[in-house]
Amino acid sequence: MQVDASQPPGQARTTRARSALRSPTSLLLVAGEPVVGMLLVELVGTRLELTMLFVHPSQQRTGTGRSLVTALVGRFPAVSAWSAAPEVCEALGFRRTGRARDDEVELSS
Question: Is the pTM of this model over 0.85?
């Protein structure tokens, strides 16, 4: 599945992000002033799962996303992500675990 960075996330992803933002087991990291990137993670069991990563289009491919992930993993080493576009997560430093569900692949830090 190809990720189109010019399109906003779909309704299902937006609903999940809103729900996660209300959860006491979620963490939101923000980059920049004004904000140019956000990373949302949720505590699932004993690890954090990367729920959403947003980088303003003007700041994409500048290292903003990688710096958010690096800061997160530096503080919480056990982070995983499920992605239909695993190459995006691999570019951020994640590696495939070999597990899959539906059309998504699990990656870990």
Answer: no
34 preceded by a cis bond (ω within 30 of 0): yes
CA dist 90 and 109 (Å) reads 9
Residue 6 has pLDDT above 70, yes or no: no
Tokens linked to 2? 């190809």
Q: Which two tokens stand for residue 65?
A: 């996303």
Q: How far apart (Å, rounded) are the C-alpha atoms in residues 37 and 55?
A: 4
Asked whether residue 59 is assigned to any structural domain, the reply reads yes
The domain spanning residue 104 has which CATH number? Answer: 3.40.630.30
Q: Structural domain of residue 85, as residue ranges?
A: 11-108
Name the residue type at position 36: V
Question: How far, CA to CA in Å, does 65 sit from each of 48, 53, 62, 88?
Answer: 17, 7, 8, 10
pLDDT digit string, tens, across residues 19-60: 888 888 888 888 888 999 999 988 888 888 888 888 999 999
- Please check whether residue 5 lies inside any domain of the structure: no
User: How many structural domains are present in the chain?
Assistant: 1
